[in-house]
Predict the structure.
Amino acid sequence: MPFVTFPDQAPAGLAESDWQGIRAAHESGRHGFKAVEGGWNAYNPGQQWMTRFDHRGFTAQPHHGDWQWGLELIDYGFAQTRTVVSGIPAAKMEGQRLSY
């Protein structure tokens, strides 16, 4: 059986259109969100970062690193008109986008 030498090259016996569909599904999964206890994980293979989203914010950590950074929304507004964030926000996931 011949080896596939280029990602765009369909394996022998597989139609080019079928191969492109398989590749698109694979790429979508590599960049998608995975539901985990307490939130979601997303891995960026190009940057090799794992980002974890919980209901407070997110943390990002490089694949080969023992450090992480993140953000958490505590309040918003200006000066005396700040609003404190409370409760668990509703999350909406669409493809490769997660929004609160």
